[in-house]
Amino acid sequence: MVAVVKILIPIFGFGAQGGYRVLSRLASEWSDRGITVDFLVPEGVDHPYFETKGGIRRVRRDGTLATGSSDARSMPGKDRFRALFKGLRALRDEYDVFLANQAFTPWLLLAVGIPARKRVYYIQAYEPDFFDAMKQPVHWALAKASYAIPALRIVNSPLYLRYKGIRAEHWVPPGIDLSNFRPDTNPRDRDTFVLGCIGRHEPDKGTIYVLKAFDKLHAADPRYRLRVAFGNVPEDWSHPAAEVVPLQGDVALAGFYRSIDAMVAPGTIQHGAVHYPVMEAMACGTPVVTTGYLPATPDNAWIVANRDPDAIAAAIRAIDQGNDRQSRVAHGLEAVAEFAWPQVAARMLALLSGRLAP
User: Fold this and answer.
1) Model's pTM, two decimal places?
2) Coil, helix or strand for 341?
C-alpha cells in the first residue's frame, strides 16, 4: 500500500451544512497523522464555518495562489469555477490525492488532467437529489454525469452504493466526536417526559409529524413536554408545553440531547442514510425514535412508519413505560463506537492509499 502524503480538497466555498463539517474534521484527523491536507478555494471565500487543521490555499482570478486569509470580495459563480480550474492546473503535480466532494469538482479534476488514480469523489448525503431535473435541467444533468467520471467513488452510507446512477464500491460514514456526544453521568429525575426533535421547515424532514404526535400525547397525559432544537416550527403552531431551544455549537447540541427523554428523527426520504441526529442522540444515551436512519436498528432504537404521528406517539409511550429501554440504549452506545472520528478517518485513508498502489 502506498502512503498518502498530500491531499487537496477543492471546494467553491465553506458552508454551515453537515458535509462541510465532515470535510473539515477529516482534514484535521489526517493532519494529526502528519499528512498535508489543504483546501483550495477561490479568493474572497469566507473562513471555514467548522474549525479545521487543514490548510487553506486561495486562488485569485488570474490563477495565482496565496495562503492565509483574504479580504478580497467574493467572486461570482463562473469566476469561482475558472479560478479553481486555474488553481488545480497549477497544483496538479503537487498532491497525491484530489478529493472531489461536490457535483462539479469532479469535472474540474477531469478537465485539468488529474490522473484517474489520484481522483476521489466523496458523495455525501442528499447530494444526489440536490438539483431538480425540471427546474435546473443543466445542473441536474451535469451532476448525474459526474458519477461516470473515472474516479474512486466513496459514498457515506450503503444506501448510495447503487442510488440514482451512482455506482460505488465503498462507503465511509460521517464521524462523531464521542468526547462531546456522550451520556449524562448524573441523569436527573423528572416528573415529566420530554421528547425532542430538530426543528426544520423542509417537509421531508418530518417535523410536523412530531408536533402532531406530541399534541396527541399531551392531550392524553399532561406530563409530556416537547423541546424543539433551533425552532423552525410552522408559524401557526404553538403549544404551552412546547419549548423552542436556540442552540449554537456542538457542546450546546449535546446538552440538548441529554436534556430530553427521547429523540425523534422523523425524516420522510432516503431511509437507510446515516443521520446525525440519530447518531448524536444515541451517543448521548438518549432513546431514539426514527423512521429508519443509520445507525438505528430494531435492537437499538424504535423504528416507526413513515409520516405516522400515531406510530411516533406509540413509540414514545413504550419508552416512557420502560419497555426495553435500557437494552436498546446500551446497543445504541455500542453501535456509534465505529463512527468515532479516528476510526472514520483511518477507514477513508486506507481507501485512498489503496487507490495509489501500483
Assistant:
1) 0.89
2) helix
